């Protein structure tokens, strides 16, 4: 029996941090462990109901007790932002995937010159990693048949990386011939998705990638690894975290310097969906019963499982925004120590093998959120929006970023 047929159980994983479990398993647990000092430095001992009042002429939030017999007259929450944000990274590296993952499923041909210009604009915005293209058979992905021309046409910029996807040795050799300095390999945590997307089992794909990564190391190339369906599969439903951990561990052990974890159909949430909401979804859309059952597995246990085998600084997250949960999932990932986020300009993308799955989270929205949290990205959001405008205009569709849409309305 292969290791995939008998996947790692959560009981086999190293013990999870009690602090992490308390912080992420339930909001009430976090509230119990958080004490807020009052203005005199003592903890709040209010009895009875309380209400939060914001004083517009100050920066104080105060909890005022309705019970007049309470000893508490006010709790200063000035330090609350620091408590909430204390575990966030100071810098987040954004891996822009719009030029490859975002465009690969476009039905109408996107000219090579447009792709090159898009990449040029993304680099000008300050993005240091832009996934350029994929050396895959044109039979399967016609949109990327110009991979060689795109890679050779990109202006080389110091300290900017242009990884390319190489699904097999043939693709790898073509990428090297075109001057690739970094490659990426793509595996799945779902057996069914692997067979439909890669035409092979998970184990067969890993054998194939061992050959590719061995060749890449001989050429001194950097290697990135992708794992798809880390939360759920459009065929199998929920994916157990141990399966994700197994594939991520194998990719890391074969030499991938970074492992990107992809919620391919965008059903993941930071927590879990309630039974009441789940039953409501079932009653309205019975055809989605199997898929929606996947939401019971959240992002947190998946990340915990992977982090047991892959160092946290080697992990990236890649969220699709099908259910509008991508930013929330990114935030909880940051709180768990992740500092690399994949995103796509103007939310370009989708998955041809996952019906209803929308595009990647928009890079503009990610940058706006990160900057709002005081996290550095080295990305100029105005120049980034110019890149989004450029490709959206060419494709003849509205902007896929809520941030860009809102800011454009303010400037019109």
From TrEMBL:
InterPro entries: Aldolase_TIM, HMGL, PYR_CT. Pathway: Metabolic intermediate metabolism; (S)-3-hydroxy-3-methylglutaryl-CoA degradation; acetoacetate from (S)-3-hydroxy-3-methylglutaryl-CoA: step 1/1. This is hydroxymethylglutaryl-CoA lyase. Keywords: Lyase, Metal-binding. It catalyses: (3S)-3-hydroxy-3-methylglutaryl-CoA = acetoacetate + acetyl-CoA. Its EC number is 4.1.3.4. It comes from the Eukaryota. Residues 92-385 form the Pyruvate carboxyltransferase domain. One of its GO terms (molecular function) is hydroxymethylglutaryl-CoA lyase activity.
